[in-house]
Amino acid sequence: MTWDVLSMIGTIAFAISGAIIAMEEEYDILGVYILGIVTAFGGGAIRNLLIGVPVSALWEQGVFFQIALLSITAVYLFPNNLLKHWQKWGNFFDAIGLSAFAIQGAIYAVNMNHPLSAVIVAAVLTGIGGGIIRDLLAGRKPTVLRAEIYAVWAIFAGLMIGLKVVVTPWELYTLFALVTLLRVLSYTFKWKLPSRRLGAH
What we know:
By secondary structure, this protein is mostly helical. The protein has one domain (2-76, 86-188). The protein has 8 helices and no strands.
């Protein structure tokens, strides 16, 4: 049950974020749907490849594809004056998607009895994979590669689940809320990881 709820939340959040970025870049309607779908399912596809799940498992998620398509359609039909607030809401949806999919990826790896390192990798790739593909296709520098803290929260989720600190459904929902909040705080207050520049500026 928790798995399905997290999958649904992550799918809707990333489908919306992909669709709005496509509209920002002035893609046509087909481009909007493609970017929304790729953002929603890209992270899961990369994870499946790396932890040994057939990629074809994605095609069994018929209901989630329908949910993603409905979410993209709703955003496409949304009035423009409401979409102008995207920067605020877009980051929020991205935080929700990151949190839901990082936890979902970690659970996936734990259920397959993978070691802690694989659980963390699965959490990170599922959480950030769709966003990276979205940003690259939109010709943007991926959020995860900027100094702003992003992937760290997916690593945190993977650690909590891999070390069995978080096990019950309510603990998972609490972790979901916490990771979302940490991500929102990190972009609101511009928390940054150390970065080093080469060359004179």
